[in-house]
From TrEMBL:
The entry's keywords: Oxidoreductase
SUPFAM superfamilies found in the cross-reference section: FMN-linked oxidoreductases
Tagged with keyword Protein biosynthesis: no
Protein's name according to its UniProt entry: Alkene reductase
Family classification: Belongs to the NADH:flavin oxidoreductase/NADH oxidase family.
GO CC terms, sorted: cytosol
Top-level taxon: Bacteria
Keyword Transmembrane belongs to the record: no
Domain NADH:flavin oxidoreductase/NADH oxidase N-terminal stretches: 6-332
GO molecular-function terms, A-Z: FMN binding; oxidoreductase activity, acting on the CH-CH group of donors, NAD or NADP as acceptor
Pfam families listed in its UniProt record: Oxidored_FMN (PF00724)
Cofactor: FMN
């Protein structure tokens, strides 16, 4: 049986959650070519609205922010209209929607973007990653280093995207500063070799993330702004150094972000519980924690330990639209079909069986 702590209600900024579960953000590659959510997106998120807090897939704030094929944006009127349908469906089914703002930086390829431009990054250092394109896998190219003026333009893109998300009816946004993407790249010394105010010291490497968070919170309210981090995650070819370096970087970053009183901190946790404990102690509002490989009986472990307030679910929620009910009554779970994660269409997206519709 699941821990009783999962079923306690929780106030998150302006919204009231019925329990401590949430939908973790997961890229599904089913958007239309123009970056509007695909035809089944409203159904997909609406099916999972019982999770209460629905955090969407990574959504680009600009054309430069796109890295993968068929990912959605939130920077054009058409994209806003598409997300409005998703927001409406989630709300009709009792959930609350946060759109994750994700600029991929160097984790991109010109073939995958509408304008076919060279990717941008803190420094002109390739991620050396295989990117899947319409013509098959291709190496991510050497990116173009952003100027200080362009960094400020990107901050403006996040501000605009946050306003667009609220215009689309979303309840808030999550800033993606994790998983090897642009904000995370600024934090990592092997991707950020800058010698100006955005590189070098831990304070300078954190500056971009802090300025993005300030701009978004100013635009839509701190109580509608969350942020996601992934300390020491080596995704996208990043290397943040040894444990002492990682702890120093993230204690400073989270300490500065805490001053903004953002609605939540979302930690994609790799296993340094000493660091997680210190971040929990420094953070004034809600903490969300997700761990790779967490099993069913461990969903509430961080909540029970006082390290988290909410437990976002990834693969369990993807394969079980009615995961809340299944956990509540201790019902068996569907297995995830990895072959349909990114294939497009309804199969493996909106056709997983529920307890009432096997």
């Amino acid at each position: 049986m699941t821990s009783p702590s999962l079923w306690q209600p929780f106030t998150l900024g302006r919204i009231e959650l019925p329990h401590r579960l949430a939908l973790a953000p997961m890229t599904r590659n089913r958007a239309n070519a123009d970056g509007t959510p695909g035809e089944h997106a409203a159904g997909y998120y609406g099916q999972r609205a019982s999770l209460g807090l629905i955090i969407t897939e990574g959504t680009q704030p600009s054309e430069d922010g796109q890295g993968y094929l068929n990912t959605p944006g939130i920077h054009t009127p058409e994209q806003v209209a598409g997300w409005a349908k998703v927001s409406e469906t989630v709300h009709e089914n009792g959930g609350h929607l946060f759109i994750q703002l994700m600029h991929v930086g160097r984790i991109s390829h010109p073939d995958n973007t509408p304008h076919h431009h060279q990717p941008v990054a803190p420094s002109a250092i390739s991620a050396d990653q295989d990117m899947f394109t319409a013509e098959g896998p291709k190496k991510s190219p050497v990116p173009r280093e952003l100027s200080v003026g362009e960094i400020r333009d990107v901050i403006g893109e996040f501000r605009h995207a946050a306003a667009a998300a609220i215009a689309a009816g979303a309840d808030g946004v999550e800033i993606h500063a994790a998983n090897g993407y642009l904000l995370h790249q600024f934090l990592a010394p092997n991707a950020n070799r800058r010698t100006d105010e955005y590189g070098g010291s831990i304070e300078n490497r954190a500056r971009f993330s802090i300025e993005v968070a300030k701009a978004v919170a100013e635009e839509i309210g701190a109580d509608r702004t969350g942020i996601r981090i992934s300390p020491a995650f080596p995704l996208g070819g990043l290397d943040e150094g040894d444990a002492a370096a990682v702890r120093g970087q993230y204690r400073y970053l989270v300490g500065e972000l805490a001053k903004l009183n953002l609605v939540y901190l979302h930690v994609h946790h790799l296993g340094d519980d000493e660091l997680l404990t210190s971040l929990r102690e420094a953070w004034p509002t809600a903490v969300l924690v997700v761990r790779y490989g967490r099993e069913r009986d461990g969903i509430a472990s961080d909540i029970d330990a006082g390290l988290a307030d909410i437990a976002p679910l990834g693969r369990f929620a993807l394969a079980n639209p009615d995961i809340v009910e299944r956990l509540r009554i201790d019902a068996p779970l569907n297995d995830l079909d990895p072959e349909t994660l990114y294939t497009g269409g309804a199969h493996g997206y909106t056709d997983y069986p529920t307890l009432t519709h096997p």
